[in-house]
Automatic annotation (TrEMBL):
Superkingdom classification of source: Bacteria
CC terms in the record's Gene Ontology section: cytosol
Keyword terms of this UniProt record: Transferase
Record's keyword annotation contains Transferase: yes
Domain 4'-phosphopantetheinyl transferase N-terminal positions: 39-119
Listed name of the protein: 4'-phosphopantetheinyl transferase
Any single biological process term in GO: lysine biosynthetic process via aminoadipic acid
Family that this chain belongs to: Belongs to the P-Pant transferase superfamily. Gsp/Sfp/HetI/AcpT family.
Pfam families with a match to the protein in the record: AASDHPPT_N, ACPS
Length: 233
């Protein structure tokens, strides 16, 4: 797949040299006014269109529609199949998967006007992006996100701007790890507070054994956003 052939704004994200070569990530810029009846959305099936129609705000319709179409094109390129014919299903925890033999693992996230797609043919992947809104009070969410080590690292930051930015980094890293696990925020076996991801060495987060056999890194994100990628060993 070449990004220039898609009717969407999609770009590969450069990853550190020590990232497994089978892991790849794309950033998608989402047109929040995009209509579902455009030719670019022709790969969506009836079930996907019905799901999109249930959203109350058009921005949410556009986010779902654009990301589902890009995902179909990415997976079609990986599997050498037609994008519209792919069978996308969800497991009992709601994690989407491709119901074809030898299908790659993938994960999708979106927030605001941007989305991410991670994919690998050899391991589990998880990805997360969050719009770091200046009006968001991160301290209200901190008890549900931070382990003790994370909290101490954040409180040691020199100012409130740095503390807020580091919280969003921590939040996206934990989301990515949980999504790679396949449990999401509501998973019972592992929760956000059960493992730390701080301190961070460059882009790489520090995961203890409680986080499982995963690595996590911060991703380059648009201004005002935080993003992270996780993968299994």
């Amino acid at each position: 797949m070449t990004e220039s052939t898609l009717p969407f704004d999609i770009q590969p994200i450069p990853l550190p040299a020590d990232t497994p070569t089978d892991v790849r990530v794309w950033q998608v810029q989402i047109d929040l006014s995009a209509p579902l009846d455009s030719a670019a959305h022709a790969v969506m099936n009836a079930s996907e269109r019905a799901r999109a129609a249930r959203f109350l705000r058009h921005a949410d319709v556009a986010r779902f529609g654009v990301m589902r179409c890009v995902l179909r094109h990415v997976l079609a390129a990986e599997t050498h199949r037609d994008a519209a014919s792919l069978m996308l299903e969800a497991d009992d925890r709601g994690r989407p998967f491709l119901a074809h033999p030898d299908a790659p693992d993938f994960n999708v996230s979106h927030s605001g006007a941007f989305g991410l797609i991670a994919i690998s043919k050899k391991r589990r992947v998880g990805v997360d992006i969050e719009e770091a809104r200046a009006t968001f009070d991160w301290r209200e969410l901190a008890p549900a996100v931070l382990a003790d080590v994370d909290r101490r690292e954040i409180e040691a930051m020199p100012d409130e701007h740095a503390r807020s930015a580091t919280f969003f980094d921590c939040w996206t890293a934990k989301e990515a790890v949980l999504k790679a696990h396949g449990v999401g925020i509501g998973g019972a076996a592992i929760t956000m507070t059960s493992f730390p991801v701080l301190p961070r060495d460059g882009v790489r987060y520090t995961l203890t054994r409680e986080g499982g056999a995963f690595d996590a890194i911060a991703l380059d994100a648009p201004s005002g956003y935080a993003a992270a990628l996780a993968w299994s060993y």
